[in-house]
Specification:
9-stranded mixed sheet; 13 helices
């Protein structure tokens, strides 16, 4: 019996669809609840892993995984971005812990500022409205309309020599936030989801997961407070991209070839078998390559502004999108 093909992806929506065997909106798996809402300019999918059965099937911890998909995220579409910001802010609010008094939030931007596809997290940390220092040094300047928000971009271990989780843990022990919101670049199974998908979850995150370089996980157990993860797939594995192209090419050849037996044989190969074959062929020449669109630097600014503004609205009770637009920087 062929082993089930497990794609390289950080997106719960892709894992569920592949396990079901089709990219359908209405798939259901044991221990997994899926709700899909379609709007004019975007689609929202809420996947909840309910129990151990769902956890074992999905390979994801028990919790909520919300995905917002829109091709408009890649473009300079302010009105559509405003709609997505408001939807994303509502999703974040729904995952924030209930708390009496002023909420203390730590924003963590994971990633490498020197690698453009990995700059999403640090970019967001530069755009959120930081207020913790104001509450400490000039408390009369703020009121309950804002939370106590701190921002941190810890860098990557290849540059700091320090495990990312160790840096964050040290900060957490000092400032004692009620919640961490971590932002990172992810990897996708399908090239169509690159830069057009935002995933929000309340189960934590593994830094570097997008390129298969997972570090110690950031979650409630390791950090001592809830961790909300926000991620966007900015890269796709080259072998996966070639595999998808090969599938489309085989389908085209089957339609046009006079002698389709050879292409039928290729189509009959299992997904895992094809993926392994492609990896063996390309590894000696291009190695473990990840691919990103050529306009990634521009798109990161769109995505970063959408996520940062959604966080600002979600955690600061008195802040609206119109307030942010008045003082855009």
């Amino acid at each position: 019996m062929e082993e089930k093909f497990t794609p390289r992806t950080d997106l719960a929506i892709e894992m569920g669809a592949v396990l079901k065997g089709e990219l359908a909106d209405d798939y259901q798996l044991e221990g997994v609840d899926v709700q899909v809402d379609r709007f004019e300019n975007y689609k929202k999918t809420h996947i909840e892993v309910l129990d151990d059965a769902g956890k074992n099937i999905m390979g994801k911890p028990i919790g909520h995984y919300i995905t917002i998909e829109s091709e408009h995220l890649k473009e300079n579409e302010p009105e559509v971005h405003k709609q997505i910001i408001e939807e994303l802010a509502d999703c974040i609010k729904g995952l924030l812990p209930t708390h009496e008094g002023t909420l203390k939030v730590l924003i963590v931007g994971l990633g490498n500022r020197q690698a453009t596809p990995d700059t999403l997290g640090p970019y967001v940390t530069d755009k959120v409205i930081v207020t913790r220092h104001l509450a400490e040094f000039v408390p009369e300047a703020i009121d309950d309309s804002v939370c106590h928000l701190s921002s941190l971009a810890p860098g990557v271990m290849g540059l700091t020599g320090i495990e990312t989780s160790e840096i964050i843990k040290g900060v957490v022990q000092h400032i004692k936030p009620d919640c961490i919101i971590a932002i990172d670049a992810l990897g996708a199974r399908s090239a169509t989801r690159i830069n057009s998908t935002i995933q929000i979850s309340n189960t934590g995150i593994s830094p570097g997961a997008g390129i298969g370089n997972k570090r110690k996980k950031l979650d409630k157990e390791s950090m001592g407070c809830p961790v909300i993860a926000i991620g966007v797939p900015t890269v796709v594995d080259a072998a996966t991209l070639i595999n998808d192209t090969m599938d489309r090419l085989i389908d085209s050849m089957l339609e046009e070839a006079n002698n389709p037996e050879f292409y039928s044989m290729l189509k009959g190969l299992g997904q895992q078998e094809k993926y392994t074959l492609i990896k063996e062929v390309i590894s000696p020449t291009i190695g473990n390559l990840f691919v990103t669109p050529k306009d990634i630097d521009e798109v990161i600014t769109y995505l970063g502004n959408v996520i940062a503004n959604a966080i600002n609205i979600a955690v600061h009770p008195g802040v609206t999108i119109d307030d942010i637009n008045k003082y855009r920087y």
